[in-house]
Every structure is written in C-alpha cells, then in structure tokens.
Task: inverse folding
C-alpha cells in the first residue's frame, strides 16, 4: 500500500483535519509539551496523511473518539503511526507496547505502521501489527500488502 500525500489527498481536507486535532493537543500543557501550535500541526499532518489515505482510499472510517485514529472495515479500532524509516520502527513499537499496557488508554489492538518521506511525501505501509496481550506482533509485512 503506497501513496503520495500531495497527489493522492486533498491538502485542504488534510490540513483542516490535522489542525482540529492539533488545537486539542495544544490546549493542554501535558500534551503540548512546550511545542507551538504550528509545530504540533506539522507533526499531526505527518500522521494524519496515512489516516486520511485509509479513510479515502481503503474504506476505513474516522474514529469519532478524541485522539483515536481510524476504524477498519470490520469495525475494529486501528492505531496508525508514521515514522521516517525502518530503522525507527522498533522504537515506535516499543512506545505503542507501553501505551497498550496502560489499560486506561483503551489502546487499539491493531496497529498500522507507515514509513513517510517528509521531502517527497511518499508513504508506504511497513506493516500491520496485532496486540497479543503483551506486545504488538507483526501480522502482515509491507511486501504482503
């Protein structure tokens, strides 16, 4: 699954979606973590590109819960993460494992990890992971998608 955020997505729709969540993040010092609204919007845009692609091109729906990502075609909540390269995927998985262990978060049991190039706007699905009760385990690798 590959796409280009500039070519395959409506930039206005992407910006409005990301800005809305960024404003929620910026309102709370604990989630803003000293970042400006513009810095948060930039970060959120990067991740929301993959979410919006899944919604517009893969029949997923937007998860209406605050700070949640998407719902797949089977009705399952899906967490979507985007990172710069394969070298960083293990760090992303470690953070997601820690978050999933905090039961109050109600973290989704399905995780999609995309690799996104911030210069070319090219994205591809690196892998789909499922929670096994202790950690996220790879179910589908990029070559299988």
Result:
């Amino acid at each position: 699954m590959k796409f280009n955020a500039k070519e395959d997505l409506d930039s206005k729709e992407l910006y409005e979606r990301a800005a809305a969540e960024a404003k929620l993040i910026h309102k709370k010092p604990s989630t803003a973590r000293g970042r400006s609204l513009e810095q948060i919007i930039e970060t959120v845009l990067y991740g929301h590109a993959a979410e919006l692609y899944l919604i517009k091109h893969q029949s997923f729906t937007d998860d209406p819960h605050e700070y949640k990502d998407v719902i797949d075609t089977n009705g399952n909540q899906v967490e979507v993460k985007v990172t710069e390269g394969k070298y960083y995927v293990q760090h992303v998985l470690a953070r997601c494992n820690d978050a999933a262990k905090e039961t109050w978060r109600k973290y989704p049991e399905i995780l999609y990890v995309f690799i996104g190039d911030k210069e070319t706007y090219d994205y591809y699905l690196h892998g789909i992971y499922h929670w096994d009760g202790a950690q996220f385990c790879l179910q589908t690798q990029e070559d299988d998608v």
About this structure: The chain has five helices and seven strands.
